[in-house]
Each structure stands twice: as structure tokens, then as C-alpha cells.
Amino acid sequence: MTELPAHVDIREVAMRDGLQIEAPVPLSAKMKMLEAIVATGVKEVEATAFVSPSKVPALADAAELATELANFDGVEFCALVASPNGAKRAIAAGLHSIEYVVSAAAGHSRANVGRSTAEAVAQIPEITAIAHDSGATVEVIVATAWDCPFDGPTPQHRVLDVVKAACDNDVDRLAIADTIGTTTPRRVSDLVAAVRPLIGDIPLGAHFHNTRGAGLASAYAAVCSGITRLDASVGGLGGCPFAPGASGNIATEDLVYLLRDSGVHVDVDLQAAIEAAKVAQTAVGHGLPSALLRAGDRPSGE
Amino acid sequence: MTELPAHVDIREVAMRDGLQIEAPVPLSAKMKMLEAIVATGVKEVEATAFVSPSKVPALADAAELATELANFDGVEFCALVASPNGAKRAIAAGLHSIEYVVSAAAGHSRANVGRSTAEAVAQIPEITAIAHDSGATVEVIVATAWDCPFDGPTPQHRVLDVVKAACDNDVDRLAIADTIGTTTPRRVSDLVAAVRPLIGDIPLGAHFHNTRGAGLASAYAAVCSGITRLDASVGGLGGCPFAPGASGNIATEDLVYLLRDSGVHVDVDLQAAIEAAKVAQTAVGHGLPSALLRAGDRPSGE
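Predict the joint structure of the above. Result:
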């Protein structure tokens, strides 16, 4: 029997990864979502991204949203950046925790940020300096850690090279991301086993999408491999808006259900996550793929 | 690292568990579905059920459908029954493999077949005799093995009691079924570990629904626990027709994808399963919840 960790930290990513491909949602509706998310008890929230407003119009209000974050106590907010300039903007807006994404796959790196993986890696020192000089922390997220939409399977050495460079440059946290929702449990266990020996005591998180139905299975495999930080999105927000029903991020409430029934403690309340998913659904104006949102908790028989 | 089995047998259940709650599909459309299913390479197909036509009108054509089965070579067909009379009808219709369902939970047993679990268990010897006298095999499926819609969690001893009675009465195969789609990987591992010591070398299968998003994770946990027989349904057919998008059985193609990428061999071809899911979708006239049906295989980069 695999020994499971006693506790898993969930980072709520609906506000960024969930909303980024949606039609822009007014700030007032975003704040309702954020209030519902904070009410779940989650301790870390990815609030927005400081990236090109023309490329990601849904998050063009990043600085404005950031000014609202001081109103929430007891939650760590982070924001995604793709360049030193984005890091500066995030810090200037008051963020204390930034995520820098590096695509391990050449094709996705080029398409996503117009730079090679090596060029993106080369910016880690500058971004780390910008953050650390302000007392902020940096997480490097290795995107396309398993597969690339252009290149197919990502050679493992490309992932490990990014991981090593991040460790060499004093990043505070690492994550491996299944950007296009293709990985499966065995591939998760394999990559975690390869990454772990390289990173010392730097915390390692994982990020999964449910695009091919295996998101929760992959998340459980990650937890069985000792991962105790997982991203998830209320309602499973984050699917392609042009493919109705297509699954996005793994749904927070579905993950909470699975972990609870596995004896793993999380800070997120199941019913509150379902309520937040309903608020997210209203905000974006279409149905979300979460299973618990439809089916609810299992019958208690009481 | 968990040692995975080299091969898993998938039983295709779309024709029975998938169709049983749908509006009746004409026999001609069913035969198109069956042809597409057989074309996947699957070696075992649950073809229909010999139950009350008034309770399950969608399968009222069981005997008529059974006469068509002789046209398919190389596939083992089975049919579900809920009583000795059903077993006699199945055998008379030419089936060589029958499944007898016993609900481990009192509430579901009463609601489903109007008998207590003990009364249903008491029929195992007669059903086994009917089958064996005709050279047919019997599988006992323990329904509501984890949770009951009425009673909540099923006490494990109730499951084990049914398993023991089945073994004592020379059944040929056993399966544990997550009838309402509530179980999760850890609970699967726990129950398999409890059942295994009781059954000697009787093959044990498992049946999962994806109602709460954990179906594939549970299936993978079962495989990690040594289960090498899994039920699945093309398209994930088998959800409630009155809850659009609600997930039914785990989708064959999603399971094949996950197992293939875990290095586990199956007889079912992934693309052929996606094609069969499309045929099933046409037959029932509404969308199905399968992930692969929407997303397709992962990019090969070629």
C-alpha cells in the first residue's frame, strides 16, 4: 500500500489559468469569484498574470485586480509572469510571490513566448533577482513537461535541464505542468522520480488538466509519489471556450473529494468549493466540466 | 514504483449498462453499435440483460438481439440477469456467460430487485446450477460495493459476505461494482486488498462510473492492486439522460489511452474505440462524456 501524505496544499488557479482564455470578465465579477474562492479556505491563490494585455486580454486588469488583494487576510496570492518586465510589473503591483513559466518543449516555448527554452531559462537569474530584491519569492513552472502540442512527447532531459537551471539560480519553488492535458499516472510517477533527486529541499508542485480524462488519476499518482502541492481550478474552469464541455484544469472540488476520501487533509472545504464553482460558472456565462458540480457529494445515508 | 500487470482485459458494457437507461434504441442501431464495438478488438462484450422488460424497456429486445450474436467470431458475449428466471431466459437465448448482480447494500438491493441482499445471495446456487448445467459460466457482480444511494457507505463486511457466498457456490468469476460512481482510488485499493484473500484463483474484475470524476483514477488504482479485468463503455455511455453531461461508465477510449501510456497492453484499439463512441453517440442521439471523443489522442509531433 502506498503511503499517502497527511496533507496536500491546493493552489487555486481559476482566477488566472481558468479565466485567461475566456472572454474578459468584468473586475466586479472577478472579485465575486475571488471572494467565493477565499471562502473555500484555500491558502494560496494564483490571482492573475502580468503578461501582454493584447495577447491575454482577459487578464489586462492585472494591476487593478492586484490592488484589491490586500483586502483578503490569510491567503498567499501569486501571479504568473513570462519575462523580467512582467516580474517588475507584478512586484510593483504589490505581489509577493511570482511564477515564471518556462516551456521545456521547443515548439511550445517559441509559440508561447517567442523564445527558445534556453532563452527563457537565461532569464531566470534576472527574474529571481527582481523578486528576491523585493523580498518576493519565485516559482519556476516547467510547462509542457510531458507533451507539446507541436513537438509531441517532451524528452525528459529537456525538463531536467530546466529544473537544474532553476535550482542553480535559487528559485524558491518548482512545479511541473501538464499544459495540454495529456499525461497519465505512470508518466507522472516516472517524471517525479527523475526530478526529485535534482532539487534538494525545494518544494515541488504539479499542475494537471483533465483534457483526456486522466487529470485526477495523474494528480493522485503525483500525491502517491510524494507531491504535496497541486494546482486546481473551481469548476474545472480553463477549458477551451470554443469546445463546449472540453475539460480544463482539474476541478478543485473533484480533487478535494478524491483526497478527502483517501484520508489526505486539504484546507479547502468541499461544499464551499462547489459554491465557488457556481459563482465561476455565472462569471463566465457557460457550463463548467466539474463532476461534483453536477453530482454533489456522495450520499451519506443519514 | 508499483508493478503494473502486462495486460488488462476490458469488457465493453455500452450495450447493456450504457443503453439500459436510455430511451429504447432500435435493434438496427444497436447492431451498428455492436459492429463498431467488435471492430475495436475487444474480446468480451456485455450484450444485454434478461430482466423485466417493463422495468428496463431499453433492453426488452434481449432475446432478439441474442440471436444476432452468433454472427460475431472471437468475442465472448455475456448478459446480465437478476433472477433464476432471467438466467433461464439468457441460456435459452444462447448465451454462454451470465452475470448475476447482488447488491451488497440493503437499500439498493431492495430498490433494485425487491429482495434483501440475503435473499439475492440465496439464489446464487440455483443460478449457478442453471448456468453450469448448460455449460455456461456465471459471474457474480457485487453492486454498491462502496456506497449505496440510500444507505450511504456500504459496510465492508456486507461485500465480503457476498463474495464468500459466491465463492462457496462455485461461481466462475467475481466483480466489484461502484454502481453510483462514488469511489476513489484509496477505497478501491482497500477493498481489493480485503477481497483478494477470500477468493483463491477466481478472477476478480471491477466496474467503475465516472460520476464524481474519479472513475479513471479508481480504475488505475484497481490495476495497481492487481485487477486485470475492467468494465468500460464506449463514449462513457451510461450517464443519466436527464442530467446532460453527467458521466456514466468510465469511457473505453479514455481507459485505453491511460493504460497504453502506462505500458499496459489491452486488446482494444484506441482509434477504433473513438469511432465506436461516435456510433454510440449517434445511436442515442445526444453527446457523450468521453474525453478522448473530444480531445483525441495526444499529439505525436510527427
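Chain A touches chain B through 54 residues (CB under 8 Å).
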